[in-house]
Amino acid sequence: MVWETPYLSYAVRELPKGCQLCVRGEKLVLFTTGKCPRDCFYCPLSPWRREDVVYANERPVKSVDDVIEEAMIQEAKGAGVTGGDPLARLDRTVQYIRALKEAFGEDFHVHLYTTGALATKKNLEKLYDAGLDEIRFHPDLFNPNSKLFKVEIENIKNAFDFDWDVGGEIPSVPGQFERMKWYAEFLDSLGAKFLNVNELEFSETNLRNLLDRGYRPISDESSAIKGSLELGLKLLEWGEENTSLSYHLCTAKLKDAVQLRNRLRRMARNVAKPYMEITEDGTLRFGIAEYDDLDELYEFLVSEAEVPEEWLHINREKGRIEMPEEVALELAEAVEGDVRFFIVEEYPTFDRIEVERIPLP
Asked: Which part of the chain is the Radical SAM core domain (predicted)?
């Protein structure tokens, strides 16, 4: 039976352990490299992520300490290791998995996505010894005549020599039902636990490729591909009848409206300053004042406007003074001159993306 989860997704049987934590915002997203042996036409990675870079969530990583700190801010209970293909930089990936396990214990659940192209028995043994709990294979399913596909399929078999959860993860590509069925049967025959299916989405980088192949968005407001969700549901219904796998259809709405929001809420608790309000969506809301001379403005607000110092914070990097929303509202009415007041809303992430800015009169 296909059932709708509380997270705007669909499932057959139970969700993989990695997904259970992810939908609740409890998984650190550890991107260990943008390098990949493949070039899929639907790859959504941005140009700068296709380089040999490392990120923990939105934080650029220079050392293991950055990864540990980001996991602590998120109060993460696990990590999803992704790329590119993390096996393209295997030693680095192994180092981070081992460090996370040492820092947070064996119960810190780590799953990893790979094409399978580099999943030799020797490489998989290194991942297993580092503490990897779950591995998800995404072979070149929609290009079955490639030499790489044949290597990937053979390498997937190596994963069953180890005591971890093995599954697949593929996009739901309209017109590819038979290939998706074939992969589900292949995994089931090996004794895999699950197959994750992702609703296909447009991104800045795959837009042209998808449009050229005739794919269209479901609406002007959505990045989801028309027919992808329906195909995913069809596969789940077929899979429930014909295989013993668990299935999870991860929707575009889950990623945007549930998983991200839950992660932001967890992070906001640990990064919010006393003058910031945490919104229902997990963003930070507060007032700011902008002026050419921040020190002069700060002195004026404390001495002349009699604003308590603990309510004010000079953010030199962004060229502003931050304060509670109520204080900004009052000052905007009382202070004359070239001082500009705003109410802003930001993500509590490392890059602090601003999602709203309201000018005050």
From this structure: 21-240
